[in-house]
Design goal:
alpha/beta; Rossmann fold; five-stranded parallel beta sheet; disordered C terminus
């Protein structure tokens, strides 16, 4: 299985910005963690990070026919990007949204997630471990759970936290 992992704006600043929220580890450490989690599940991964919405949309579109699933941390675009939502819907690949922090404990404007509407699941508040859970869900140990979540949701979304608009 080929998994595309997309990280949105400012995640390249991990370990520098808002350490009390995002922790002390760097973006390079996150990438190494993601690669190891994919290897544990026997999955190939491509990691992509951009601070630009259009670049993220372009990369999602390039996943069509090239990757099998998407793990996405849209970061600040979570709360604003219909374009990312539309791109995820267009490629129609299994996708899981991940956030390092717990959105329900953040500012009120962070309670809305547009990309979640195209994702099977949202995992937040687990730090780096959220990526491992998303990868397991899509590639390995969670595969049966993924099929159940998709069929029970009628092919729509299934959330760990209901972040619907």
């Amino acid at each position: 299985m080929k998994i595309l992992v997309i990280n949105g704006p400012n995640l390249n600043m991990l370990g520098i910005r808002e350490r009390e929220i995002y922790g002390e580890k760097s973006y390079a450490e996150l990438c190494a963690f993601i690669e190891a989690a994919c290897a544990e599940e026997g999955a190939e991964c491509t990691i992509f990070q951009s601070n630009h919405e259009g670049a993220i949309v372009d990369r999602i579109q390039r996943a069509y026919g090239a990757e099998d699933a998407i793990v996405i941390n849209p970061a600040a675009y979570t709360h604003t990007s219909v374009a990312i939502l539309d791109a995820l819907r267009a490629v129609a690949l299994p996708a899981v949204e991940v956030h390092l922090s717990r959105l329900s404990e953040r500012e009120s404007f962070r309670q809305i997630s547009y990309p979640a509407l195209a994702c099977e699941k949202t995992i937040d508040g687990l730090g780096f471990e959220g990526y491992r859970e998303a990868i397991r869900y899509l590639a390995g140990s969670g595969g049966a759970d993924r099929k159940r979540a998709s069929s029970s949701a009628g092919g729509d979304t299934c959330f760990v936290h209901n972040l619907m608009v």
